[in-house]
Amino acid sequence: MTLIAVASGKGGVGKTWLAVTLSHTLARAGRRVLLFDADLGLANVDIQLGLTPHADLGGVLAGQVTLAEAVLAHEGGFDILPGRSGSGTLAALPPATLEAVLHGLSDLARRYHTVVLDLGAGLEPTVQRLAAFADLLLVVATEEPTSLTDAYAVLKLHEAAGRGASARIVVNQAPTRAAGTRTYLRLARACTAFLGRTPPCVGVIRRDARVGEAIRRQTLLLARHPNSDAAEDVEALAAALG
Ligand SMILES: Nc1ncnc2c1ncn2[C@@H]1O[C@H](COP(=O)(O)OP(=O)(O)O)[C@@H](O)[C@H]1O
Ligand SMILES: [Mg+2]
What we know:
Blueprint: E1 2-7, H1 15-28, E2 33-38, H2 45-49, H3 57-61, H4 67-70, E3 72-73, E4 79-81, H5 95-109, E5 114-119, H6 125-133, E6 136-141, H7 145-160, E7 167-174, H8 177-195, E8 201-206, H9 209-216, H10 221-224, H11 229-241
Parallel strand pairs: 1-5, 1-6, 2-4, 2-5, 6-7, 7-8
Antiparallel strand pairs: 3-4
The structure holds adenosine-5'-diphosphate and magnesium ion.
């Protein structure tokens, strides 16, 4: 089992969309995948997919259901553990509660090849703990300077937590592949200089109008536009993860 967390620092860079699309890609390749909506402040995997979950992480924390009972099967071939949309109240979980959730997740994860954690924006201790818990941390950045500085902050905290070796960089919304590579190099150079480590790039995903269109229609990009640039790029990313 591999646990992959998706982080960025900054919101709106495409973490949730990437977590959903990567889960779908891996499921299509025959893996058993669980997508865990771990954006504890503004969970929205269910919104992007137009789902109305019967249970969610909020219910798990309230002791109403177990983690396993909250899992729902998506027609895309992967399972989802929904977060709690828009509550905003779970972002600062007491550490002991968070550890209990992680313990439950470790048990549940045994049923899967891959667990994808969609993390929230920001650098709160909860986000950091979830990032440190993962086998691989995908740090998503765009070419915007604020995204780059926030992605660097995530990488710096991850390094300080002793988990730097698990970090990978993904550039999203790149105007072209070449521009995306330049964005990666800008971030990688800062890491080399100040952290003494150069996280590898596992993917450049191009900006693609069909991403927004698929989200507006609450459908999966790979179902609707399997040959789009962004779909192709996420498939390449999934292959690069091995
Ligand atoms: N590769 C892309 N091309 C075009 N638009 C994108 C791409 N990735 C993400 N987006 C846009 O970014 C918006 C924010 O995505 P989302 O997954 O909610 O970000 P986050 O989870 O980081 O806050 C989406 O509504 C989508 O329209
Ligand atoms: Mg999100």
